[in-house]
């Protein structure tokens, strides 16, 4: 027997996209996407680099010497008693009266208490005196804002009740 040698050059077929399930989805073919999370694309590395979807990275946002903009974050509004009085006043309007009376009361810092060692206990001891005054001023501003809202809600309620009473009286009289 003679041995024949065959020399052939094998060429690889072009990579294709394969689906892991056997169902054909017309929506996927039309829109070019995948509606199933079980689909996976099988591509070779050369196709991934040469594909039309490959885009160069976007340019840098700013140069190394450029300074990026800085933003300040406003601290959250402190939670106050009058805020709760206003919100719960919709269920029990007498809370609006109590909240409106805060406009008449002097707003003072909390009293200093004496601790176990006989020294005055300071409100917010981790803060400096200036920071404590800033916090107190912010709380006063927020208290007054919500107290005014309580007053306006109370006046609106009185006006609505007055109009309803006048309408009822006009209807009853005629």
Automatic annotation (TrEMBL):
Top-rank taxon, per record: Eukaryota
Keywords: Membrane, Transmembrane, Transmembrane helix
Transmembrane annotation, as ranges: 84-104, 150-172
Residues covered by region (Disordered): 36-65
Name this protein carries in UniProt: Transmembrane protein
Lineage: Eukaryota, Fungi, Dikarya, Basidiomycota, Agaricomycotina
């Amino acid at each position: 027997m003679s041995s024949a040698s065959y020399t052939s050059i094998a060429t690889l077929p072009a990579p294709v996209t394969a689906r892991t399930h056997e169902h054909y989805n017309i929506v996927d073919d039309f829109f070019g996407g995948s509606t199933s999370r079980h689909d996976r694309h099988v591509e070779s590395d050369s196709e991934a680099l040469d594909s039309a979807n490959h885009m160069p990275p976007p340019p840098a946002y700013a140069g190394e010497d450029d300074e990026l903009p800085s933003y300040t974050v406003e601290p959250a509004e402190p939670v106050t008693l009058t805020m709760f009085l206003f919100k719960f006043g919709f269920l029990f309007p007498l809370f609006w009266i109590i909240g409106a009376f805060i406009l008449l009361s002097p707003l003072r810092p909390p009293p200093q208490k004496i601790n176990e060692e006989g020294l005055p206990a300071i409100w917010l001891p981790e803060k400096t005196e200036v920071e404590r005054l800033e916090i107190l001023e912010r709380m006063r501003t927020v208290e007054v804002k919500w107290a005014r809202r309580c007053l306006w809600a109370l006046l609106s309620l009185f006006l609505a009740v007055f109009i309803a009473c006048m309408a009822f009286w006009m209807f009853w009289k005629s």
